[in-house]
Amino acid sequence: MNKKYTLPDEMLNSVSGGKLPLGWQKIADSMAPDLLQQYPGITYEEACKKLKQYITDPEDYAAVSEYIEKYF
Fold first, then answer.
1. What is the pLDDT of residues 19-59, one digit of tens each?
2. Looking at the predicted structure, is the pLDDT value of residue 10 above 90?
3. In the chain, N or C terminus with fewer CB closer than 10 Å?
4. 58-68 vs 44-54: helix axis angle to the nearest 10?
5. Predicted TM-score (pTM) of this structure
6. Sign of torsion over alpha carbons 50, 61, 20, 12
7. Measured at the alpha carbon of residue 62, what is the angle toward residues 54 and 32, in degrees to the nearest 5?
8. Among 71, 63, 26, which Cα is nearest to 44's?
9. What are the φ and ψ backbone dihedral angles of 23, each rounded to 5 degrees?
10. 24: Cα within 13 Å, side-chain hemisphere
11. What phi and psi, each to the nearest 5 degrees, are found at residue 68?
12. Cα(32)–Cα(68) distance, rounded to whole angstroms?
């Protein structure tokens, strides 16, 4: 395919609605302990607010925030 006609991944992600990658749960599992260590005493609600800065797709945000609740 001609590179001239391809879109950057960032643009595709914003258009597609930001589908989570396969295996995102393993990524969340590996990052959650770091988050808890970096912010001692952080509540679930506070962690969800931090997530909202990085996950803009509402469906992705709902899935991730629901998944990480087990750490609180």
1. 888 899 999 999 888 889 999 999 999 999 998 998 989 99
2. no
3. N
4. 150
5. 0.68
6. negative
7. 60
8. 71
9. 85, 15
10. 14
11. -80, -5
12. 7
